[in-house]
Structures are given as structure tokens and as C-alpha cells.
Amino acid sequence: MRIGIMGASGRVGTRLVELILANPGMELAAALVSPGSKLAGTPVAGGSIEYRPAEAAMKSHCDVMIDFSTPVASLALQEGVGKKAIPMVIGTTGFTAEEDERLTAFSRYRPMLVSANFARGFEAFRLAAIDFSRRMPDAEASVSETYHARKKAEPSGTSRLLARQLFEARSRAMGFAAPEPAITVNREGDTVGVNEIRFDLGSAEAVFTYRVHTLAAYAEGAIAAAQWLVSTPRTAGRYSLADSLND
């Protein structure tokens, strides 16, 4: 499987490049960085290609592309790819509602699997928490996150996703708008990622915790998603991690 990486110099992108180069069943087809990156034009360690700006990506033959960049760069990539039916795995977060609509519009040309969190096992964690909220709608839900100290001190796309889906699940179960879950943001040292959902039942409490030990978890999950996306020809459209678990 030939894989192109968008955001190859980032925290997750670096791990993706390492995993692909170490796997004999995979080939790194492109390592894309921003035009101003100091890596642009330099060879990828252990590989036969160079880091290069995304505008050169259209000449690469990829079976799938994995994008962990920024909303602006991600949408620019989609524009550049145009109508080509290259499957896309997108782990970029921070899209505004309008940007997300633009992203979805490109899925009419190609299969596109989008998720706020690709860490292995996260999707099962999310589904379990949403199911609990649906079964126990009277339990007040709250969301908290802990990431490394260098990350912006605002709720991540993961926490926003969890809070929104908990709100929707409780609201449907109760038949009226439930209170929106509070989100607590913590930044500590080099913490990779801890996501926690608490359900206050008054006389009891349920806590769901998902802890990521290394960045490789995100890279491994993204590669697994890419393998699912290309293992069987998928029609153009937008997919979620839940879709990949249902096969």
C-alpha cells in the first residue's frame, strides 16, 4: 500500500512516516510539509523520497493519503487533488462549521474517513460512553481532557465531539434539550492524551477514561483506518471510524 502523508513533520506525521518505513508491506509515496518548513527538499531518513510542499503532491501515485495538518492546509490539499478519487484519512482538527462543510463537499469525489481522534480503541470508548448516556439519561455528564503543556489551552476537537454527542444522546432519550456537558481542560508536562467522561448519578458515579501512552497510538489507528478504506473499494463519501468497526 502506497501512502502519502500530509503534515509529515508534525507530531503524529513523524510517527506515521516512521511506521510506514518500518513496515515492509507499506511504501511511503509522499511526505508533505508546508512550503516554509525547514525539512522541505531534504531526504526522508531511511527512505528514497524527499519532504516536499503539498503543491507537488498531485504527481505522487498514492493508494491513500493520511492528513494530520491544519484546516487551511487540509482544504488546500483537497482543492489540489481536485476530482481525483484518492482515498483520504483525515485526522486534522479545528475545522469551523463552514470549513467542515467544504471538506464534506470534496467527499463526493473520493472516499474520505474523518475523525477527531484516531487513537486505537478510542472509537470503542466513545461508543461505550454514548451508550451509557443513552441508557442513563438522568446522569449529568461532564468531559475533561489532559494533554501536553504546549497544546493550546482550549477544548480539543475530541472533547468537543464527545460533549456534543453526549448532549445529543441525552436529549433524544429525555425528549427535550439536556444541559450541555461542561468541558474541563488540563495541560500537564508531556502528557500524550487523557480523555475522561464522568456521569453523576447523585448516589453514584460512573467514570470512563481513555489514556494514550504514546503518539504511536494515533499513527497506528490512522494506518488501520487507511487499510480499511482501501482493503475493499469504497464509494465516494464521508466515513467515520464507526463505519470501519461495523465491517
Can you give a write-up of this model?
The chain is of the alpha/beta class. It has two domains: 2-118 and 216-245, Rossmann fold; 122-212, Dihydrodipicolinate Reductase, domain 2 (2-Layer Sandwich). 35% of the residues lie in helices and 24% in strands. The protein has seven helices and eleven strands. The chain has a seven-stranded parallel beta sheet with strand order 3-2-1-4-5-6-11. A four-stranded mixed beta sheet has the order 8-7-9-10, covered by helices on one side. Helix 2 links the parallel strand 4 and strand 5. The two termini are 20 Å apart.
User: What is the N-to-C succession of helices and strands?
Assistant: EHEEEHEHEHEHEEEHEH
Helix content: 25-40%
| Rg computed from alpha carbons, rounded to a whole number of angstroms | 19 Å
- At CATH's second level, what is the architecture of the largest domain? 3-Layer(aba) Sandwich
Domain tally: 2
Please, what is the CATH homologous superfamily of the largest domain? NAD(P)-binding Rossmann-like Domain
Strand order, main sheet: write it out: 3-2-1-4-5-6-11
Q: How many distinct helices?
A: 7
Specify the structural class: alpha/beta
Query: What is CATH's topology name of the largest domain?
Result: Rossmann fold
The coarse overall form would be globular
Number of strands: 11
